[in-house]
Amino acid sequence: MSTTNFPAGSSSASTGISIEKVTMPKLSEMKRQGKLISSLTAYDYATGRLVDEAGIDMILVGDSLAMVVLGQENTLAVTVDEMLHHTRAVSRAVHRALVVADMPFGSYGTVAVGVANAIRFMKEAGAEAVKIEGPRVELARALTEAEIPVVAHLGLTPQSVHRMGGFRVQGRSVDTAMHLKVAALALAAAGAGAVVLEGIPRETAAAITAELPVPTIGIGAGPDCDGQILVLHDLVGLSFTPAPKFVRSYADAGTLIRSAVEHYREDVEHRSFPSDEESYHLPEAARKALGARENAGTLRKV
């Protein structure tokens, strides 16, 4: 049982962050205005709330949770039901950011299956958009026709890790760079409201961004995209694996948490936690009555 309450925290107004709800059209407006889009992953109520309160524009409930939350070697094992579970938690926490749910591996093998599962994310989990990997133009079109906002994902697509032979930078040649650009334009024409570009050369991402009518969100794609995204656990030092080249560490939460837990264990072992001030007490009259009963019981034993 827990009696933990999350503090209210800083309001968006007090931190100077706009409290206007972020939507897919809002992201396109930001691109037109030259405003860069910030995005991060989140996987539960606490991280969703903290990321949202920090003013992040788009929150992705990423299938990366398979690795950083569930301890899998890659993203392939996470299921639709697990993704729904985590998306629900994040959706409850978020008030401003656009909440995007990652469609996990195997959940959109056909257009019909993809649309059916995307509807579940919208209806059952509160997602405001879904993300799909690869140049799945027909699926993007069908989702758009079903009134489901779509974020596409090109370049290094983690669900294709076995086909690619590992997590390898994509789009290194002129031909592959052009292929990515054609795919991005086709996805945008089919209705995708944004395109994540992962693990591609800066120059390739810049060329795509310049021609694409919708925002590009980069991860390992250089600074010329319309926005950036990172995995939250990489950002704060909770991934327990060597960080990719494109990750910048902003905190060492792993060391902070480990230190806090060690101090807690020591306090328990030395009986310094909880203290008298951290304990509940009977009212004075009840304490006296209890003491009297204990004394009477002691006398009878004597």
Describe this structure in words.
There is one protein chain. By secondary structure, the protein is an alpha/beta fold. The chain has a single domain, classed as Alpha-Beta Barrel (TIM Barrel). The protein is built from twelve helices and eight strands. It has helices at 24-33, 45-53, 65-68, 80-93, 111-125, 137-145, 161-164, 174-190, 202-211, 232-235, 253-269, 284-301; strands at residues 37-41, 58-61, 98-102, 129-133, 150-155, 194-198, 216-219, 227-230. The chain has an eight-stranded parallel β-barrel, surrounded by seven helices. Strand 6, helix 9 (202-211) and strand 7 form a beta-alpha-beta unit. It is elongated, with a radius of gyration of 25 Å. The two termini are 40 Å apart. Residues 6-11 have low confidence and may be disordered.
Summarize the structure.
The protein has about 300 residues and is an alpha/beta fold. The chain is about 45% helix and about 15% strand. It has an 8-stranded parallel beta barrel with strand order 1-2-3-4-5-6-7-8, surrounded by 7 helices.
